[in-house]
Amino acid sequence: MTITTDAPIELAPAIRSQPRPRRAKPVAEGTVAISVATLAALVGLWFAASHFGWASPLFLPSPEEVAVQFQAVAQDGYAEGTLLTHLSSSVWRIGIALAIAIVVGIPLGLSMGLNRWMRGVFSVPIDIYWGLPPLAYLPLLIIWLGIGETSKVLLLTLATFAPICFSAQAGVRSVPAERINAALSLGANRLQIFTSIILPSALPEILTGIRIAIGAGLSTLVAAELIAARSGVGYMIMSAANFLATDVVFVGLIVIALLAFALSSAMRWLERRLVPWKGKI
């Protein structure tokens, strides 16, 4: 016997009773919050160390002293120039060096990734000089080129060139062969394969190499200005250290940190515009 009923089946309450899935917070928001909390903790530790006298003011000036000195250096200047003058000199040097390294390093790195002869010829010389500390061959550059801007820009170019070149080469080598074979089977020529597959696939690696080069360039910049310069943030730090002006040294370090953060943020913005698929596939 079959029993029928006209009563409706109640499924809606069961569906409504199920908990709604929570929207996952973007990873970037959580990372920014952690970074802000870490920075606040470091600043708070700095305040506490200066307030309770954990370190001598000669070695660790208070944040208030650094802020006052920051304003004084910005308005009145220090070491034969204002803060803007020193910062402009440093930015000009690192900007010219990065431009040269990008213009020369990216095409050479792509060529090394595509051609074994290019890779065999240039890999060893770049590996040899990149393994040397920049300060090791800075005196040689000064002997050859003098203490002018040419030796500093060349030093910074050498420091930033290798990461960019090797990242471009690694980007080419990481392209899956299946993509190239699929394009060949569809009748694509070499130029189309390069512009449509190889270059877009290598671009994330290239941008990462530029970010690494920025860090290497900034550290080398300060070293170069410490030895042979009459302007620049590194020169200002050296002059302040000679007179035990620790607060001015802190001002210079903060300026360099802000410059590095600004350049890194600009590169992250550029990555989001040029390679929005990075990390999503």
Report on the architecture of this protein.
This protein is mainly alpha-helical. It has a domain at about 90-230 and about 265-275: MetI-like fold. About 75% of the residues lie in helices and about 0% in strands. The chain has eleven helices and no strands. Helix 4 runs antiparallel to helix 5, helix 9 (about 190-225) runs parallel beside helix 10 (about 235-240) and helix 10 runs antiparallel to helix 11. The longest helix is centred in the C-terminal third of the chain and has 38 residues, at about 190-225. It is globular and about 70 Å long. It starts with 11 loop residues before the first helix and ends in a 7-residue tail after the last helix.
Features:
281 residues; MetI-like fold; 11 helices; disordered N terminus
Put the structure in a nutshell.
The chain is mainly alpha-helical and 281 residues long. Helix content is 77%, strand content 0%.
What is the tally of helical segments? 11
CATH superfamily of the domain at 88-230 and 265-274: MetI-like
Q: Classify the beta-strand content into a percent band.
A: under 5%
Q: Structural class given helices, strands, pairing? A: mainly alpha
Reading the helices and strands in chain order gives HHHHHHHHHHH
Biggest sheet details = none
CATH-derived architecture of the domain at 88-230 and 265-274: Orthogonal Bundle
Radius of gyration: 27 Å
Poorly predicted parts: 1-18
CATH class descriptor name of the domain at 88-230 and 265-274: Mainly Alpha
Helical content stands at over 70%
Report the principal-axis shape.
globular
Number of strands: 0
CATH topology of the domain at 88-230 and 265-274: MetI-like fold
Amino- and carboxy-terminal Cα gap: 57 Å
Mean pLDDT equals 84
